[in-house]
Amino acid sequence: MTDAAVTLTGISKRYGAVVANDSVDLVLRRGSVHAVMGENGAGKSTLMSILFGLTEPDAGTIEVGGVERRFRGPADAIAAGLGMVHQHFRLFDSMSVAENVVYGAEPTRGALLDRRAAAERVRELSDRYGLGLDPDANVGRLSAGVRQRVEIVKALHREAEILILDEPSAVLTPDEVTSLFSVIRRAADAGTTVVLVTHKIQEVLAISDEVTVLRAGRVSGRFATAEVTGPQLIEAMTGRDVVPVSNAGARELGGIALSVDRATVVEQGITRLDDVSLTVRTGEIVGVAGVSGNGQHELVEAVLGAVALTSGTVEIAGTDVSSLDVRRRRLAGLAVIPEDRRGEGTAVTMTTAENITAGHHRSAPISGSGLAKGWLKRRAQREEATRLMADYDVRAESDQSLVGALSGGNAQKVVVARELSHGAPVLIAEQPTQGVDVGAIESIHTRLLEYRDAGRAVLLVSHEITELQALADRVVVLFAGRLVAEFSRAEATTARIGAAMTGGVTSGSGDAPEGRTA
Ligand SMILES: Nc1ncnc2c1ncn2[C@@H]1O[C@H](COP(=O)(O)OP(=O)(O)OP(=O)(O)O)[C@@H](O)[C@H]1O
Ligand SMILES: [Mg+2]
């Protein structure tokens, strides 16, 4: 007999016509790392929510440590020794790390939160697992990787023996993933059972002991990691081969479509973006590499108009937009796939049809006129939405499903479909494939290359060096807010990009930061 920490048997869950889980069996061995894989919408998050007591299954049983349990809510699951880090963070930005960790399970002195005890507890857990957390830091100011660690400490604080991680690495940089994995290993070695949802095959092979693959709600494969290969996992997930897309080279460069000239952003005395100049021509994809927090997000926000430039200018399609707001910049010819699809990217309480066509309403055929306006608009909007959903393989029950009810990867596809379909001369794509499955990554990559080949300009910001190498015609590297290196497609090796990302300058064009004076 294996030592099962958790046994799920015959779990089924249906949402309307969608069968999210169909008689799923899953056994998690104590002290093991168990990966759960599957395409977008395959039912991974649903299964994890059921295990954590957030969703009630229609059928099936949950055993924890050999005892059958019925969870009426997460509190029951926590009491049974489970902890969960969600696909989307659930932290309070205005509170400190320590306050977030103990929230709902506070050490108290009398009726008051014992801040000192809370901070002490965070420090102790942080040391034990090598997390490097500052208990007093304000969560709103932390990077995705650090927030993730706060979520993990939160689960560990509640003495979780079974840790559920739903796509913990989707928003992390490669370095953050490495440190997350060492935390996972330490926890498993100490006897914690870890279940990890991810789309990344290298991660599964690197960290897990066992893998379960879901396809359309059913288990389509069970493997010991040591005995499985990447192609076998892809086959189990998709039922086919997935061939990586690669840039065959830009056809013909046109004029400058996006020009950022000596852009500087200073916020509360901190220089986030430091005298950055770059151009993107029509017919070109320029990749931006950098360790998270080195100015790439500020660069995106500065082009979009979400933060004000302290100095410098931005031109889109020949118009100086430096003093325009976001809406006017979009009208000037800008489309944006933002990093934060739930905050900036979608309105979760609106339908998929409304989200996927948002911003199109100013143009025909969606806007009508006269008495029939409202009705015509709605019908045209639904037709357009249905077409885009089919085109981009957005899997939802219908175009009227709320975006908040879509699986994470399908919500991402909604954003990508909407932004690409504007046909704007300049596209900014920030982590465009986060949370999408292997097949959808290749399809989005193909779309981005087609977008360029249609004579448009793309600025691609990605944590994944392989994604930059697959798509970009040129790669620039940001470090400490400065543009420290630029590489042609041929020069853009992992070693060179990696060195520049950590401040060692080996620019292909000899463009050293010291050479730039303010
Ligand atoms: N609250 C809900 N209401 C309606 N449908 C839902 C709800 N939650 C999930 N679904 C549907 O159930 C299916 C499985 O979704 P789930 O989120 O479990 O997928 P997933 O495997 O986690 O996908 P991803 O990799 O994109 O995160 C999807 O079709 C989704 O739209
Ligand atoms: Mg999910």
Fold and architecture overview:
The chain is α/β, with parallel strands linked by helices and 518 residues long. The relative contact order is 0.11. Helix content is 33%, strand content 26%. The chain is globular and about 65 Å long. It has a 6-stranded mixed beta sheet, with helices on both faces. A 6-stranded mixed beta sheet has the order 18-19-20-15-21-22, sandwiched between helices. The chain has 17 helices and 22 strands. Residues 361-368 and 506-518 have low confidence and may be disordered. It folds into 2 domains: 4-238, Rossmann fold (3-Layer(aba) Sandwich), CATH 3.40.50; 256-333 and 424-515, 3-Layer(aba) Sandwich (Rossmann fold). The structure holds adenosine-5'-triphosphate (ATP) and magnesium ion. Magnesium ion binds next to helix 1. Adenosine-5'-triphosphate binds next to strand 2, helix 1 and helix 14.
